[in-house]
Amino acid sequence: MTKVQVPVIKTEGLTKQFGSFTAVDHVSFEVRRGEVVGYLGPNGSGKTTTIRMLCGLLHPSSGHAQVNGLDIVRDSEAIKRQIGYMSQKFALYDDLTVIENLSFYAGVYEIPRATEKQQIDRILNMAGLTARTKSIASELSGGWRQRLALGCALVHNPTLLFLDEPTSGVDPVARREFWDLIYTLAHEGTTIFVTTHYMDEAEHCGRVGFMNNGSLMAFDTPRELKAHFLHGAAWAIEATPLLEAVDILSHLPGVAQASMHGDLAQVILVDNTVEVKTLTQGLETRGIAVGKSTLVEATLEDVFVLLAHKR
Questions:
Q1: pLDDT for 180-217, tens place per residue?
Q2: Pair 104, 211 in one domain
Q3: The domain that contains 287 carries what CATH number?
Q4: Which pLDDT tens digit goes with each residue over 133-165?
Q5: Fewer beta carbons under 10 A from the terminal one: N or C of the chain?
Q6: Is the per-residue pLDDT at 248 higher than 60?
Q7: Is this prediction's pTM over 0.85?
Q8: Which of 171, 206, 226 finishes a domain?
Q9: What stretches of 31-171 show up as alpha helix (H) in DSSP?
Q10: Final residue of a domain: which of 226, 248, 270?
Q11: Which domain holds residue 51?
Q12: Could you tell me if residue 85 is inside a domain?
C-alpha cells in the first residue's frame, strides 16, 4: 500500500484583512517536500503577509493552513521551532561578529551545547563564512550579510525554509551565488519557499505562484505556465521610435501583449496563425521604421504581465 505524503504546506482560502484592506485574498496551494517554490509578485502583492501567516507570526482573518501538518493558528509555537525564516531586512545584530550572531541564534533555537559548535561549523562551511568569523556584521557587504542571515535561519537544521525576498538589494553576482546555495540545500532535502519580485529568479524554481493585489493568479511549473498562458510565438522587433511602436503593436489584432525589452519591442502573439510580417506591415503603414524581427523565447515575466493585464 502506497503511503500518501502529507504536503509540507497546505493552504485553503487563506485570507488576511487589515481593516477594509485585503492583503491576501482566499489563497489556496500546496507545497511538496523537497520542492523549491517561488512566490512572485510586485511589492505590496501579499507575498510577505502570506509568509508571516505560514510562519505563525500573523493570524489569518479566514481560511486555513497547515505547515508540516501543524495548524498555523493552534500550533504556531511548534511551527516556529521547525522552520527557518529569513526576513527581508536580514535580522542580524550589527554590533556582533559573524560567529557571535550564529551563537546567539543557536541559543535562541536551544541547540544543545554538545552539538552547537558542530552545527555552527557546518553553517560556516556551507555559507562560505569560515574566513569571516570575526568580522562585525555591520561591516559585511550585502552579499555576505545575506549569507550570514541565511546561516542564522539554518543553524537549527530546519527541513522547511522561508526566504522573504532574500536577494533584494544585493548585486547580480551575489544573487547568483545565493541561488547556488539554495540549490545545494534543496538537493540535501530542504523544502524552500522563496518570495521575490525578480521575475528572472522564477526560472530557478520547480514551481511558481504569481501574486497580484492579494490574489494568487497561477501556480505551476515554469514550463506549464508558459504553455498554458502563452499560446503564440514571441518576437523581438527593431522599431523606431520604440515607444510609439510598442503602443501601436499592443493595439494590433493578434497581439496578446507588447512591451519594451531594452532597445527592442517584444510581442507575444495570440496564437501561431498570426504572422510577424502582418505586424511589421502594420507598423510601417503608421510611419514606424522597422528593422530585423527575431523569434525569441517567452519568459515568466511575459506570463505575469499577461495575467496582470487580464486582471
A1: 989 999 999 999 999 988 888 888 899 999 999 999 99
A2: yes
A3: 3.30.70.100
A4: 999 999 998 889 989 999 999 999 999 999 998
A5: N
A6: yes
A7: yes
A8: 226
A9: 47-54, 76-82, 98-108, 113-127, 142-154
A10: 226
A11: 9-226
A12: yes
Here the CATH number for the domain that contains residue 185 is: 3.40.50.300
Please report whether residue 2 resides in a domain: no
Name residue, grid cell 507575498: 47
Q: Check residue 55 and give its pLDDT.
A: 94
> Which pLDDT score is estimated for 169?
77
Measuring CA to CA, which residue among 103, 83, 81 is closest to residue 92? 103
What confidence tier does 306 reach under pLDDT thresholds 50, 70, 90? confident
- pLDDT of 311 reads 64
Dist. CA 145–CA 91, nearest whole Å: 10
Q: Are 236 and 133 found together in one domain?
A: no
Number of domains in the chain: 2
Nearest to 211 by CA among 64, 14, 67: 14
Find the Cα–Cα–Cα–Cα dihedral 254, 260, 261, 265, rounded to 10°: 50
Which element (helix H / strand E) includes 234? Answer: strand 234-240
Tell me: do 302 and 177 sit in the same domain: no
Q: Which three cell numbers stand for residue 258?
A: 507588447
pLDDT of residue 86 exceeding 60: yes
Cell numbers that stand for 97 in this block: 561578529
